[in-house]
Sequence to fold (992 residues):
Amino acid sequence: MTSNDTAQSAQVRCTVNGQAIERNVESRMLLSDFIRHELGLTGTHVGCEHGVCGACTVLVDGDSARACLMFAAQADGTEIETVESLASGDSLSPVQQAFSDQHGLQCGFCTPGILMSLTACMREAGCNREQMLSAVGGHICRCTGYVGISRAVDQVLAEGAEQDRGTES
Amino acid sequence: MTRSKGKTHQVQAGDSGGNYVGKAVRRKEDDRLLRGLGRYVDDIDPARQLHASVVRSMVANARITNIDVEAARSAPGVHLVLTGRDLGDLNEPLPLLAGHPSLIAAKTQRPLAVDRVRYVGEAVALIVADTRYLAEDAAELISIDYDILDPVVDLGEASSTSAAVHDDVPGNVAGVVTDGVGDPDSVFASAPYTAKLRLSLERTGGMPMETRGVLADWDPRERMLRVWDSTQAPVAIKHGLCRMFGLSSQQVEVIAPDVGGGFGTKIMLFYPEEVLVPFAARALGRPVKWIEDRWEHFVSANQERGQIHDAEVAFDAEGTILAVRTNFVHDTGAYIPYGIAVPANTLTHVLGQYAVKNYAAKATILYTNKPPVSPYRGAGRPHAVFTMERLIRTVAAKLNMEPYEVRLRNLVPADAFPYDVGLTIDAPIRYDSGNYQAGFEKAIHHLDPAGFRKAQEEARARGRYLGMGICAYIESSGPGPYEGCAAKLTDAGTVVLDVATASQGQGHATSFAQIAADSLGAGIDDVVVRGGDSGKVDFGIGTFGSRSLLLAGNAVAVASERLRNKIAAYVSELFECSHDDLEFSEGQVSVKGAPGQSISLAAIAALANAYGYPVDKPLKDDPAVLEKLRERAANVATPPVFTEDGYFGVGQQLFGSGVHAAIVEVDPEVGAVDVQKYVLVHDCGVVVNPTIVEGQVLGGLVQGLGGALLEVLPFDEQGQPQATSFMDFRMPSIEGLPEIILDHVETPSPLNPLGVKGTGEAGAIPVAAVLAEAIEDALSPFNVFIDRMPLLPHQIANLVTQTPQEASIDDSGVVDAKSDEHK
Fold:
């Protein structure tokens, strides 16, 4: 590869956590590096850079995606959500709150990716326990043994069921 | 699959009666981690930062005949290319830890290999460029000529091969460590029964989700080196860097910010990059960052577990174990940075909970052309438990007993503590407290072996193979010498605790705060723990060996108590009462039974200094009391300084313990193992935070399940690693978790004020032994003998179709279950 190749750049216009972004990036820059080091949103973590561990999971147009398997240039025209978008002010999102309540995290490195996958899953109509566990199944957590995460999933589902009952009555 | 699969039941641990200690206090660190506001090394991007890439050996054993870096030096964006020769004295072999007279040829790695490489992944050159992308481009341009040598790969052949890892180390023997008690040889000569096994555990690794990483910045104005390192031991790294770079302790600061898992892998003292990156930053006068990628982690981060044991047991017809011998080889990889640490742990943990009076162990430590070995969660203990429990199962098989019955017969009695094992390898091994019978009783209660045997029989009639295993372990914890804490009541009324032990997810910010909050009567939100910053605390060692709560936690208790006494002295003068009349509660210091005689910690902090003022808390104290405090403060020449240090060391390791039990179903055709139920009963003394302890134990368990059934780091005949990505190295996922029952025995340690014992490694230690017993039990109709871990499905399926390995029990009572295959 010559220096001319590496210098190739691409225009990225996208929305990140509701903010319009417009940048010139090197064509080969990964989306994960773009989010972390160009935009400074370091809540998205990089654990393997080959799409297995799930730590870098973000939402691209609402679908969970491995940011390490996309080039920043491929995000052109998309809407991206990262872990920084989940809480509103002092309030954690229901998934975040459940992780806090149920000791769903220890070192916290894999956590943002799992939160994003579960967030996407919960937006699907009729999301059930099996689907949520399957979403977490795409992530590796080396600290918790998944026990607290599993309880957090149960909590989120129980709260959802309660809310449904509330709307029905 | 049972209906409860994936569910966890925890029997609550005892409550010690404090406001916070013993309570499931919500973790203080979680809110920011959940918001994506963690701060890991790669999250720190200082201005003018450059990026490093390491060029690594692609061969396992070779002489380097030439390194050509010229093309890389002139590549786009490159600022610096380093080879070993550019480092001068700094390229001397890195420090040796846990040295011991039994090490006969201790070899440690140089930061950069100069004329010889000894494993695939060994660092040969460092490139610093404007971006990591450009640094990796330039790495492609470095050309290294090798004269390739035969590698030492197979542990079983490492001492007999003609190949050499180090030319001046005959037989690749780094050292021979022995220990023992009694007279096992005589006992073996006269014992009614003896049995002999050969057992092996394979290499694996901690595999934290955050890889290693180092960022260094040299500030020429202050002549100050600042390093952010994903390490478990920032203070120890700091002192080592001071020595290596010839800098004073004021000139180096090492910060372990949030660290994304460690498990032992991140305490190396030193990995090459921990020297190279600071060197490059100083040479360039700019911040330099190196973040390990996952491939690098697989080939250059330390690994563990490879051992082959010959083990023998002598026993009588009642199942009393008379003597145990084990002679084993330990794979230390290409270097031996941790000395005898791992094999010594094995030696001292084999007897475990069993009162065996005659024991001999010998470890031969061998070099191989693989990444170096250092302790990984469990650290030699899983091998010990696997060895002893396989022997006990063999005793049980011979005597037609349940293995757990043999175990119960041989336990150290509850009234025998403190119990001297009689081993003296580093320091006498003395179990401080325990009640092993109670642990077994609880495990047996939760497992219901009699009920299980019926279910097993019924399942077999339906062509399904269920099995159970019950094994016990001990866990030495809290290797010394000490940890420290500086406790300070700040002028904001907040108690700040500075400790040297960094957290990699263990929740120090919460459990340490609980201890200080109870001591000082402060609210948990008013205690702030700062760990992992060598600039804040000078003396301390690090987080490893299940030692942080035990040593640093007790140091927090000591420092808090001293701070309380200091505050009490001040307040007792203010209210003209004695110390004993004061109580500390809800952020107030009050004279017992005297309404109005009370002052808040916030007011003391703010106003004890004549020029003090409340920083961030409006003072709600009685105005008369505040006035009294102001008057007193105005007339002193020396302000009271509410800061106290505390250090704590025990002088011996303390011994946690536990019993694990499992029920598995095995599919004999495909070798799949479904762990249906897993029972853990553990004793770590007083539990400071049940939630955090549960997290440690269950996290360890699942890591242990991976180690038993999934994870292995194989190498081919050329020493090429065969697992270098998460696609080749499978770890447990959330799917397929067993039903888990967690229960406790609490025997407080008499040797520390908190009564705690370590528990960081407990969950992982006995899992391989438990699953070996359970899988073997499930497959008992096929008469299989399990002699190794991990066991992958194809290996289990092969066991079923092979000629049974467990052979003869001859007339003299010798059971010889030795297997010939140990690859």
User: Anything to note?
Assistant: The beta strands of chain A are 9-16, 19-26, 57-60, 63-66, 79-81. The radius of gyration of chain A is 17 Å. Chain A touches chain B through 59 residues (CB under 8 Å).
